[in-house]
Amino acid sequence: MRRSFGALEDEVFDLLVIGGGIFGACAAWDATLRGLSVALVEREDFCSGASANSFKVVHGGIRYLQHLDLVRLRGSSHERAAWLRIAPHLVSPLPIVIPTYGHGREGKLVLRAGMLVYDLCTFDRNRGLRDGRQRVPWSGFLSAADVERLFPGVRSDRLTGGAVFYDGQMYNPTRLALAFVRGAVDRGALAVNYAEVTRLIRSADAVVGAEVRDQTTGEVAEVRARAVLNAGGPWVPWLNEPSGLAGGRDGTFSRDACFLVRRRFPHPYGIAVQGSTRDPDAVLSRSARHLFLLPWRQYTLCGVWHVVWKTRPDTVQVPVADLDRFIEEMNGAFPGLALGRDDVTLWNAGLVPFGENEPGAENLSYGHRSHVVDHRATDGVSNLVSLIGIRYTMARGDAAKAVDLICAKLGKTGGRAATDRTPVDGGDFDRFDELLEQIAAAAPPLDRDVVEALAHNHGAKHTRVLSLLREAPEWGERLGDSTTLKAEVVNAIREEMAVRLADVVFRRTDLATGGHPGEAALAEAAALTARELSWDDARQAAELAAVEQRLRPFSASAAHAAPARETATRTLAEGISRA
What we know:
Oligomer: single chain
């Protein structure tokens, strides 16, 4: 991946994709598989918005059983299987326990019946999965003693046991999106980050391209294309509206937020506990919505909370008062947690389409589906499609629908690409355990946790990183106590279009995944980045200061809007010892 802003004006592309989040990345990859020439532009870094701040769950559709929506249930199950097939290094099954209480709708009997229906509806959930590690088991049940043993401190009054179901979980959402971008580039796409679309270019009743500004230099280019897909997520309305196009701010967005705790239960199970609000759309519902505590690496992910958000996407924030309310609700749902603000290392928040709700409503209606808008039908404007994705899980499938529409406009035939079976960049291997052994054998002696991190983040393309050790063996050293190698920093710049230090530490590597990696580790990463990008001392210091600012402890005085050029991520506490 080489950044070439000037090349955007070198040809008329079949398709210009605006937005380098997971939906835009999937669309670009899909379009290249169908033989289209593609340009992909992203106003910040790839996967730096809502996609980076997801709850890291690939949903299998069990929630839609409550709505009696079997179409969405089947669709989610199909997408979960696709992710497990095409990205086996970055997505794996996640067992989740739902405690049961007493009898009736919260009891074992009702939940057992629901789980049976769910299992039958997802009978083909493991089709095409070669690695047994990736297979999703049937649902199961636990005794009350088992639940209390796994989750000490769980609400125990009238506890009768628990049901176990499986979703999928992403190891690293940003690297998963990057795998699609890299796959598209390998098939001929031109991808450019820090390239902001400032306006759509219209000719009579058609959109023929976009004006794009290079965020790093201020240079402006006119990108011409036969069709345009606006996949800018929450930015779609803000780009369409000045051109008088549908997809304005009449829709509602939710700020979906979660937070990370540096402690976790010593097993692979997550747990669903009942919060303080309910789902007004559910036909078959328990007394309250579920909040989730999910193991992720050495942390626990807590969430998700939803707030209607009506201002610009770059104003997304989680004030201290909101965080305190989230912690209070989680402690009420799971009394034994006794979480405090100092336990939280990081929060994530992003905007997704939401349901329609009355002002001040407590029990909020969620959004149900992504929005695919054909502007020929809504505005009489040819060659423009807008896609506002609702959930990371559905990105591949919804992008395919949008590209179907684009191909129809372009008169391209040949059917849909097999994106549900074609491995993403790094995903072309048979078994993860064999991949681990391959990396351990091919590399100089590396600690097992480093080998595992390389396998997850790079999959079969780990050789890109390890080959750098021939140039400089010292690049095989860790950065501080992290699992990130110095070679990964170099690889991020030479092979993955990292432009800023923030790109390296937040999205290309695991360095700041769960909080501050330590001053020494950041300083080493900054020095390596500066050398590769020929920064002077002042630029290096500025980049390091910007990253440190984003990693500073969260306090009432620091509660401010997320910077437009970075993910909505803040570190809340440093130096917390591992559980």
